[in-house]
């Protein structure tokens, strides 16, 4: 499949049309941003790792009954995906307190929840992706109640599947962000699942193996991404 016109360039990926109206090509970059683009940098090899990791995880989720936008890997940075209409929500699932949860609510990082939380942010860079709830999402016409129910139930199922998958690699899944899209009337999983969009901690030492190393200037960023790659075996 060939790249046609570029439709969009985001912070971490470019998106191209193809000759199939149902398919796009996403091309992963090494660019990294944080704090709504205020902090900028490059993580060498990140595009390759995020592409191959997302595709491996999407294939695993598909085998377990979750429909995703993944179609086929072209090469280490480029993938064919279904052309979805993105629901403008960042869907965040948490198993352990960290990041904005800890900051906003004064809960120590590492506090384990009895059951996972699900939250929504409105995907809107001008507003800084504000936290919203179900009724706000409906008022803003971002999704219907039925779609929100489906998104929450898929997100929790994805959490159970991913937690088990990462544990086999001695990694704890602390939290992560998903995006969903509409495809021929169905809600399917889209975007990416990578160290950019998950918090991943070593099971024994709690060492951070994700983008928090970039956000918080913890060093050894490339090393952490490579460690995840080698543990997941791709
Ligand atoms: P948070 O604690 O900063 O709200 O982040 C929760 C999770 O969502 C964490 O795994 C990182 C991920 N995330 C993104 O993928 N994109 C974003 O823009 C933000 C803020 C977080």
UniProtKB/TrEMBL annotation:
Coiled-coil stretches: none
CDD domains (UniProt xref): SAICAR_synt_PurC
Alphabetized UniProt keyword annotations: ATP-binding, Ligase, Nucleotide-binding, Purine biosynthesis
Record pathway: Purine metabolism; IMP biosynthesis via de novo pathway; 5-amino-1-(5-phospho-D-ribosyl)imidazole-4-carboxamide from 5-amino-1-(5-phospho-D-ribosyl)imidazole-4-carboxylate: step 1/2
Keyword Ligase tagged: yes
GO molecular function: phosphoribosylaminoimidazolesuccinocarboxamide synthase activity
One Pfam family linked to the record: SAICAR_synt
Top-level class of the enzyme under EC nomenclature: ligase
EC number(s) stated in the UniProt entry for this protein: 6.3.2.6
Domain SAICAR synthetase/ADE2 N-terminal: 6-231
PROSITE patterns assigned to the protein according to its UniProt record, in alphabetical order: SAICAR_SYNTHETASE_1, SAICAR_SYNTHETASE_2
Keyword Ribonucleoprotein found: no
Reactions performed catalytically: 5-amino-1-(5-phospho-D-ribosyl)imidazole-4-carboxylate + L-aspartate + ATP = (2S)-2-[5-amino-1-(5-phospho-beta-D-ribosyl)imidazole-4-carboxamido]succinate + ADP + phosphate + 2 H(+)
Family statement: Belongs to the SAICAR synthetase family.
NCBIfam families referenced in this protein's UniProt entry, alphabetically: purC (TIGR00081)
Protein name: Phosphoribosylaminoimidazole-succinocarboxamide synthase
Organism: Peptostreptococcus canis
